[in-house]
Amino acid sequence: MAGVDGGWEGRGADVVVFGTCEIDMKNYSEELWKIWLARPADRKFNLICIVHNAGDFGWAEKYSGDWARVGALRILPISQHVVNAQRKNFINFADAPDRYHLGYSHIPVEAHIPILPIERFSGFTAHGKHTGQYIFSPGGDGFGELRTDVSEVEGGVLDRTWGRRDGKMLRDVCIQGNFEAARRNYVIIFADLEAELDLDPSAWGYLPPTSPSAPFIPADADNFILHLAGNGKDDFVPSRLKRVVLIHKALSYPDFFSLMGSMDMVLPAFKDGGGYYDRQASSTVAMAMQCETPLLVTPRILEAYSYLTPKTTVIRPQSISEVSALKILRTSRFAPPALGYTHDVERSYDDASGSTLQKEGGEVVEMHASVRREAEEMIARGWTTKERDWREFKKGIREKNREVAKRIVLDM
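Given the sequence above, the corresponding C-alpha cells read:
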C-alpha cells in the first residue's frame, strides 16, 4: 500500500484498481480506507472494483458502505449480465432503511471487457506441439497399440502435432476451466459423446468399438479430440473415452495461450444453474475471443455475453446439444432428434421432407420447422472466422473500453 500514497512523483495514486473485488476488498479495503481518510480533500482517490461474480456479494455487505457514501467507488464487471446482477444487488441494498444514507443506487456500474486490442500471437497459427495427458494409459489397455500415423504415446502422454486448420474438418475442441462438474456439463457431454461415437464412430474419425465396453480407437489422423484445459481431479472421464479426451494441466501461460489459440473451437459447456448465464462471467468466453478461437454458443449465451458477435462465434440452435452440433459441423449433415428420442432407439430420418423422425414401433414424430433451418444456417456459416472479422470485433471492444476508461479518468 506504500505506493498508493508515496509513488508517482510524490502525489500518490489518483485511482486504485482491484483486479478481483471479491477477494481484494477483504484483504485491502480497511487499510486503503485509512489512507483515503488521511488524504486532504483535494487529494482523494477513487476505488475501481473489477467484479467477476455478482453472486459473491459478501465483500459489498462488509466493506463497500464507506466507499459508497463518499462517492469514491466504481464497479467494473467483466460482462453485461454481471453488470445487471450487480445493479440489482445495489438496488436491494439501497432499499434497506439502515443503508438509505449510503447512496448505493448511485454507484456507477458498467462493463469493461477483458480482451486486449492485440492480434493473435504468431505462435497461435503455427503447427506446434502441446503435450497432453490421457486419463488412462492407452498402451496397456488390451485393445492394441495406437496407430503410429495418428499419434505417439509414451506412458499415457500424447505428443501430437496440431494447430489451427481453418476450413478443414473440425478436429480439436477445447473445454477450458477448472474441472468442476457443478459449473460445467462434463457428465452430459461425455454421455452424449459416447452415445454419438457408438451410433456413428466414423463421423468422428474412430473405428467401430469391438464391444459395448471397449474404448474408441482412432481410425485416421483427423480423429476428433476433446481437450480439457484446467486443473482439478480428472477422474470423471469415462474409460471408453480414454483416447478421445485429452487432459492439459498446470500449463505455463505461453503454453496455455498457444493451446487455446491452436484449437478449432472452444466449448463453453455451461451447466444450467452454475451461474454463468446470470451472475458470473466465465473466463472461457473472453479467453476464446482473446485467442481468436470461435466459441460455440446459443442465443442464451449471446444475450448474457452481449459483447459477443455472430461473426466471432458459432451459433447452435438452443434445441441441439453441444455434441450434436459438433457432429453437424464435422459432417455438414443434420439428422434432427425428436423429443423423447434416445440413441438406444434405432431411427430412420426422412431427409426428403426434413421434418419427421421414425421411432421404434413405427411412431412418426414431427420436428419443429425452425430447428432444421437453424441447423442449416449453422452449417452454411461454418466454424471459422475471417481475419477482418476478428480485427473489427477487437476494435469495437477497444473503443467501448476506452469510453469506460475516459469516464474513470474524468470521474464522470
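The longest strand covers residues 46-51. Try to locate this feature in the C-alpha cell string yourself.
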